[in-house]
Amino acid sequence: MGPEVLRPCLLLLWIWVCALPAGSVLPSEISKAEMTRMFKDFMIQFNRTYRNPAEQRRRFGIFTRSLLTAQWLQETELGTGQYGVTRFSDWTDEEFQGMVRSSPPPTMHQASRLPRKKLPPSCDWRKAGAVTAVKDQGKKCNSCWAFAAVANIESLWNIHFHQPRNLSVQEVLDCSWCGAGCKGGYVWDAFTTVLQRSGLTSEDAYPYTGRQKTCRNLSEPAAYIQGFQTLPGDEEEIAAHIATKGPITVTLNSAAMKHYKKGISQPLVKSCSPDHVDHVVLLVGYGHAEKRRYWIIKNSWGEGWGEKGYYRLYRGRNTCGITMFPITATVTRVGSPGHEVHCPT
Ligand SMILES: *[C@@H]1O[C@H](CO)[C@@H](O)[C@H](O)[C@H]1NC(C)=O
Ligand SMILES: *[C@@H]1O[C@H](CO)[C@@H](O)[C@H](O)[C@H]1NC(C)=O
Ligand SMILES: *[C@@H]1O[C@H](CO)[C@@H](O)[C@H](O)[C@H]1NC(C)=O
């Protein structure tokens, strides 16, 4: 691998995104007294204590602005998404997403377009038992890129070998080639790391601690990959890939996710710019309901966030920049390359 591969490592993705919420849906107008009551409830529900009264006032101000943002998202929502108090409600936008700039992954592994066929109307790999439980990356570590990459490998491994596996996110964090760890990183760096280490250990053998530590070399990989590829940034192509190969990782703008409770989220472009992607997740399928097409997204903020840890996002208009960097590992069984798999509808 030449220096052109290393260079993107230097432009780190700072993803201050990664944690977990739950809470109430907003009333349409909130008085000061009501806001104070909601803040008190929030402090109890999310176990908040602040250093001093000044800090508490500052956090109350942030909380108020968050709720106004959630209210704006609710009023301008084009889909059925619902927004409100979440565990991020007292976080500033800088705390939530202090991203610098993302640079594209190396272009050498570009996948070719799939032949155009009629796609199944829906696809949900969870129904095949091919998606592991939703994990929680914790509040202090921007490791969504590692969680999404590992979840991608877990699902592909399950689809091709019918073996459920929880794989080690910590190994990716500790041993990643770029070494960014909890400061945020790249999915392709996670895959490069797994390739260089000839596989990935199980979660049980190398458990998640939420902090970057010294890389350990354990002998027994629990799964391995053949390579990875970036996919064309086109939602039809992405759906075709998911239906015929399995879940993939995508990078998107998490602005609406900060306040998301449930439903099919479809924020205005100006509320969720497709040019500012800052969070990495796993697309595990797609569907449609109430005449709306959506993506099914596995997040890494625990089961308490969103729809039991999942997010449904409008599909078809590059909402929140979901087509920016679709990328997936490749897992094939020796002796059966090109083996077709079918996603449950
Ligand atoms: C609440 O926070 C305090 C201090 O941060 C911690 O000691 C305690 O265990 C937390 N309680 C719960 C239920 O999370
Ligand atoms: C994976 O971890 C989850 C908890 O996160 C657990 O319920 C499940 O049984 C584990 N699966 C395997 C195959 O170890
Ligand atoms: C782990 O293995 C790599 C490559 O095989 C080696 O460079 C590194 O020093 C090893 N680390 C430890 C802690 O043994």
TrEMBL record:
Organism whose genome encodes this protein: Gopherus agassizii
- Boundaries of every Peptidase C1A papain C-terminal domain copy: 119-330
> What family does the database annotate?
Belongs to the peptidase C1 family.
Where exactly are the transmembrane stretches of this chain?
Answer: none
**Ribonucleoprotein: is it a keyword of this entry?**
no
Q: Which PANTHER family match?
A: CYSTEINE PROTEASE FAMILY C1-RELATED
Name of protein: Cathepsin W
Q: Where is the Cathepsin propeptide inhibitor domain?
A: 39-96
Keyword vocabulary terms for this entry: Signal
What Pfam family is a match, any one?
Answer: Peptidase_C1
The Swiss-Prot or TrEMBL record annotates one GO molecular function as: cysteine-type peptidase activity
Classification from the root reads: Eukaryota, Metazoa, Chordata, Craniata, Vertebrata
